[in-house]
Amino acid sequence: MPTQIGQREVFNNARKLVDAAGLSTSATVLSQSFLRSEVAMSTSTTSYHIPILVNDNQNGATSTFNTSNLLALQDAFVVSSILIGWANPTSATDAAFIPQTYPNPQIAGTQAIATALQAIYSSNLQVTVNNRQILTGWDTLRHYYVPQTQQQAAASLTTHISQADLSENGFYPVEPNLVFVGSKNNQVTLNFPQAISTVPTSNFPWYFSTKCNFS
Hints:
The structure is a single chain. The chain is α+β, with helices and mostly antiparallel strands. It is about 15% helix and about 30% strand. It has helices spanning about 5-20, 105-110, 110-115; strands at about 30-35, 45-50, 75-85, 125-130, 130-140, 170-180, 185-190, 205-215. The chain has a four-stranded antiparallel β-sheet with strand order 1-8-3-6, covered by helices on one side. The longest helix has 17 residues, at about 5-20. The radius of gyration is 18 Å and the shape is globular.
């Protein structure tokens, strides 16, 4: 559970890390912020590039999804926790969707698609900054959260939706914290042992997000 004491410790760590990265905390403003990066699913991809910077066009567009929130080149960002999940929005401009922390068949569309999406939790995340690998293998299984109350039918006034507290569930703390600096080459990759066999018909994003950070 997030606490004020825990947030203060993150803040103190952020000050030290920003100074160590060559950016003076006396000349910058430390404030809470977040990064949210999304990429489309594919049945032929085993390695996904996760954009971090606003000018990153490796996936073909600077920001494919309007719910993305990427790092400005003049900013630095201290990562204290990460969420890796998935979603099934209706389009690249849809903002009325909630990230999922487990393969919910009601959101995926069918049980077969939900089963295929379990591959998310067999993948691993790698982070390289300026050609130096600082995160060699972050297993995504730690983000798998199945709630006690699960959605059993299409949402309605009489149907339960899946229980989730997205201030905590699905997020995992990063210790030691990571630092992304806008002026550096930040490469984040999500690797799968094999491509996902089936994806939701709308074929829109993974959901990758960080929280409780300072930029």
